[in-house]
Every structure is written in C-alpha cells, then in structure tokens.
Amino acid sequence: MPQSRRAALRPQPTLLLLGSGELGKEFVICAKRLGCRVVAVDRYDDAPAMQVADRREVIDMLDGAAIRRLVRRHRPDFVVPEIEAIRTEALVAIEKAGTTVIPSALAAHLTMNRDAIRSLAAEELGLPTARYAYASSAEELVRIVTGPRGVGLPCVIKPVMSSSGKGQSVARTRADLAKSWKHAIAGMRGDKRTVIAEEFIDFDYEITLLTVKQRKSAGGGTTFVRPLGHRQERGDYQESWMPCPMKPALVREAQRMARRITDRIAGPEGAGLFGVEFFVKGDRVIFSELSPRPHDTGMVTMISQDLSEFELHLRAVLGLPIPRITYRGPSASAVILADFESDSEPAYTGLAQALAIAGVEVRIFGKPSVRTYRRMGVALATGKTVDEARRTARKAAGCVRVVRVVRAAAR
C-alpha cells in the first residue's frame, strides 16, 4: 500500500459516553457493531451501558474536573452525553480545546435545564408553548401560580433539571403546591433548586418527533422519523407507538418547529439525534420539551424500522450516510416496571410467556438495583394495527415480573 494511503488510515473512533443507562446501552451495542471503542461513564458502577462497553469509569457527573480528566486520559474522538445532569461548563471547555461534543456543548448546556431551553423556544424563537414561570422556593411557587398573572391551576410542576419524569406532578389546588414543591426538589438532578410551573394543557395526544442532524461538512441535512405517539404516567413514559395518526399539515408544522430549534442549538457542525416532544390540541402543535439524544419513547424504533434511533444517532455522530428509513408497520413498546426497592440485582420471571407471543421482543436493561416504578425493561411488539400492537406490547410487558432475589443466609 502506498505510504500516503497508509498515513490516511485511522483507527475506528473512541466514544466517551457520559451516562450509561438503557438508552446508552443500545447506543453502545450499535457502536461496537461498527468497531468503535467506547468508554462508558456514570455515577454508579455496573450501569447498563458499562456491561457492553470496552471500559467503564465511575465519577460524580457534576464534577467538571473529573470529566476533563477522563477526556485527557482516554482522548476520545467524540464526547456523547446520555443524561442531563452533567457539568456542562466542562463540555464547553472540552469543545473549545478541540474535542467534538455531541451534538454540541451549547445543546447539552441549554437542554440540561428546562428553563434555558423553554426560554429559548418561547422567547427567542417564538414557538408556541404552554404558559410557564419559574420558582426557587415554595413561597415563590405559590406566587407564580396563583398571582394575578400567574400560570393558574391546575398546572404541571417539574424540577428544571431532571430526567424520566422524576419530580413531576400536577397541582390541582393551592394546597397541592407545597407537596409539588417537595416532590420536585426530591426528584431533581444536579444542584439547581428551581422548578418550572407550566399551564396544564388538556391535549388530544402528545408525540415525540425524532430529529436527526448531520454535519454540514458531512453533507448536512435533517432527517425526521415518523411521529411517535406516547402515553405517560407520573411524568414518565409508559408506552409508545407508531404510526401515530396525525394530519399531514400538523406533521409539517412539528417538523418546521423541530428543525428551527435544533438548527439553533446544534449549529452547522452539530450532529446527532434529538427527541423533540409536542402536544397536539385540535389544529395546534405546541412545543413541550427537547432532549439532544435518543429518547425513551423512541425505544419502539428497535422493532418499527430498519434503522433504530440508536443507529441513526451513531451514524450522525460518525458522519455516515443515512438512507431512507424502511418502516415495518404498526409497532408499539410498553415498559416493564419494578414495584419494590432493593440495592441488589433482581431476577425476572415470565420471559418465556412473553416471548411465546407472536411478534414480541423483550429487552431487559440489566440495572443493578431496583426502586419502585423504575424502568427495568421494555416489551416491543408489531401488529396488523396500532391498537393490536399496543395491546400485544402491554400483554407481553405484563407477563414479565421483576422479582426480589432472596439471598440464602450464610452458615
């Protein structure tokens, strides 16, 4: 081989994954299939993505110095945040020093805090959102909700920094506000004791629009996955499905808004997949939230199409082509939840019954500990119709039980 050709070759990229939950695990599996080296990082050991990565690191994710030390140690080609609660100032410094942050340090910084991304969407870009206000104390929360120009009751209250619905509640009366404040602070991630109170929208349905950005230097462009319908309880997703019946004009409006906000926070060289959430009420599409990474509701894409959200995210990160997505028909996901708490790894029963159902797949995440309502797995299903796929996914999820392991007493 000519010397010039040998010099042009480089090893496959190294990815530093910040956050190693179930979404990160599926991303790592995709990355390993393409020969990447992955270092999985989280605040606790044996997190799901660590189980399939090349290396693991356990640090305080809010310790910027610790993040910078990992970058110096592993010299990654890409830093890939998988959770919100990261010291994003460190990501800004890492990006300035020449390491690529996915999709960009700005995107990670803005979306770490609901107040920053909501203010950008509503005040800078003028996107339609629910009315909202922020509070940094229980007393201030009462004022911003019940005051003359307040958000009003009922309203949804969330910590500005959290994930998977943690700390979210609906306050229906003035008396609920104190409980909602305590619940939000208990469920917050990071160290910012601020909540957002949002107007309660009695929406017809809500969707996630998975939006994939590719770098301008790699050809640019934005790709959309078909809208996913989803249902939440306690602020956390319980099931998702596609296709989601939606008027073409409303799909185009959601795409217009998703493109506008992702263009703004990713910039021309930002790349990756975003989960952009919207409420739909009549002929109105209302911006809700945005995550600059694969989305929990998007787990249905592991069965609904040839390129899952994790494969799409990886291809965008690596600058690889994204051809037309091939869809496999009506599909659904349903979560498998725990109903107890334990510091020990659980067992699972009912897998045989679930997998005996035609059109069903199951993913067990491998989390090393359990808490009530924690997502421990997901059932995926196809069907002739969306309703059939949803019923099948729920049935399969209902077969699988998370069970406490009783250790035998030492003799």
What does this structure look like?
This protein is α+β, with helices and mostly antiparallel strands. The chain folds into four domains: 12-101, Rossmann fold; 131-199, ATP-grasp fold, A domain (Dna Ligase, domain 1, 2-Layer Sandwich), CATH 3.30.1490; 202-328, ATP-grasp fold, B domain (D-amino Acid Aminotransferase, Chain A, domain 1, 2-Layer Sandwich); 329-411, 2-Layer Sandwich (D-amino Acid Aminotransferase, Chain A, domain 1). The protein has helices at 3-8, 22-33, 64-74, 88-96, 105-112, 114-124, 138-146, 176-187, 248-266, 301-304, 309-318, 351-355, 386-399, and strands at residues 14-18, 37-42, 55-58, 78-81, 100-101, 132-135, 155-159, 169-171, 195-199, 205-213, 222-224, 228-233, 236-242, 272-281, 284-291, 331-337, 347-349, 360-364, 375-382, 401-403. Strands 10, 11, 12, 13, 14, 15, 16, 18 and 19 form a nine-stranded antiparallel β-sheet that branches. It has a five-stranded parallel β-sheet with strand order 3-2-1-4-5, with helices on both faces. A four-stranded antiparallel β-sheet has the order 6-9-7-8, covered by helices on one side. Strand 1, helix 2 and strand 2 (37-42) form a beta-alpha-beta unit. The radius of gyration is 21 Å and the shape is globular. The mean pLDDT is 93.
Can you describe this structure in just a few lines?
The chain has helices spanning 3-8, 22-33, 64-74, 88-96, 105-112, 114-124, 138-146, 176-187, 248-266, 301-304, 309-318, 351-355, 386-399; strands at residues 14-18, 37-42, 55-58, 78-81, 100-101, 132-135, 155-159, 169-171, 195-199, 205-213, 222-224, 228-233, 236-242, 272-281, 284-291, 331-337, 347-349, 360-364, 375-382, 401-403. The protein is an alpha+beta fold.
